[in-house]
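Q: For a teaching handout, I want to show students what a protein-ligand complex looks like in token form. Below are the inputs, and the small molecule is glutamine. Please produce the holo structure.
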Amino acid sequence: MPTEPDTGYDPSLGRKFIFVTGGVMSGLGKGITAASTGRLLANAGFDVTAVKIDPYLNVDAGTMNPFEHGEVYVLKDGGEVDLDLGNYERFLDIDMTSDHNVTTGKVYQHVIENERAGKYLGKTVQIIPHITDEIKRRVRAAAAGSDICIVEVGGTVGDIEGMPYLEALRQFAHEQDTDDILFAHVTLIPYSKNGEQKTKPTQHSVKELRSIGLQPNVVVGRCGDPLESETREKIALFCDVPREAVFSNPDVEDIYHVPLMIEEEGLDEYVMDHLGLTAEALPRDERDTEWRDRVTRETTGEVTIALVGKYGLEDAYISVHEALKHAGLETNVDVHRKWIHAEQLIEGHDGQLAGVDGIVVPGGFGSRGTDGKVEAIRYAREEGVPFLGLCLGFQMAVVEFARNVLGFGDAHSAELDEGTPHPVIDLLPEQEQLDDMGGTMRLGTHVTEIESGTLAHALYDRTSCEERHRHRYEVNPAYIDDLETAGLVFSGTSGRRMEILELPDHPYFVGTQFHPEFRSRPTRASPPFVGLLDAVLATGGGAH
Ligand code: GLN
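A: Here is the structure, written as tokens, with glutamine included.
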């Protein structure tokens, strides 16, 4: 079989595409811009999905260090992907799969496997057409069934790694009707020393795009402020786009307000018009306003939640931050997150935690900072401070309980102290024979059975939940009886695996082996996070 045939236009493989490229520098928030535009199109009644292209050679983000790349986001099918997919899921309120994250590693792996299997019939295998065909095939497959697919190319135009993708998109556009595709270029508009908005870097990056045969239909200028009229005119003139196709996307304090701003700018209308969708769109006054209503709610108080982790980078815990924010939207409070470096939290030095309304210990790997996490958990347990432990945080809650309540002073997780005489957290049996690190954890959605009458039951209001996982270790079954006899309740289980823990005589002490933060959405906050804030408010925490 030759390379999968490129069938050209096939409406069942997605109808309309928005290709998003970035200019001048990365980290401009082009994902948020794209996701916000998608939110507005979804509000107008369209089925919107997204594809994130990451031009790195890693097959997926699973082996990447959160210090450098931020959080590894986990999808329902267990895909370990770039955190941008989390933004798409939160903004579009959809569940994506690994197929929605195209990486150079995946593309080349597939093409090379085909070559080894003799599928190219003796042909020389090349970037064009074999790699570019494979890119197009993946984009079309991920778009299947949707009205609009937003395809974001990671990195910046001009990066060597991005070239095959831009070439693939050029071919793609060629194969479809012109009103099926919109190219949006998101770029930086810096200020000069004398306070002038400068368009030269944008001109250069658009020139670069055009030199490879791509002409943006829309230019979105990221700037501290709205673009001035002359700035828009200059961009239009030099980049060869209509004046009405230049949009502002100034900094805002809350990323959830970006869709509101983009709507004000009229970007959504312009996009629908270009794609020939205006007639199908819901009239303005019939569009979904749930997002707007939710993110513009008046808050009635504020709470401070300590996040005790090891990665100092804000992006490393982005889904936890967002889940706290969603729970705040649900309970009408502003959530201030106080970052606490676990390594600096040693016994007797819990002053940093004094006055916080709640404590979250998030997931993680490796031993650095674990004693500080255990210390934070002890403080929460003994002082009655509402606590939520996520994955490693759940495991450390078991370690803390074994050490300080059961009296096994040297209890630990076998991941962090191989020689511990009390490995209360131990390797999952199915992990024992594995050598590869990539994609081999217990990943993705698994069902947890919830015990009736427990706090977990009250939180989820159901006797089961489906949450996403990413771990290699579990509560050691040999210690469950001891832990339960001493008062720890495992209120959620999945076969032999303990999934949720709680302490009955505490305002809120909950741990989850899974990561509820990955399913939290602005309009559908995650139950364990809402429970945390409810407990803070019920115990009189938070300033009102
Ligand atoms: N390191 C722990 C494990 O592998 C926890 C993982 C996590 O927090 N995601 O089980």
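A: Two things your students might notice: The chain has two domains: 20-279, 298-538. Residues 225 and 250 are 5 Å apart (CA to CA).
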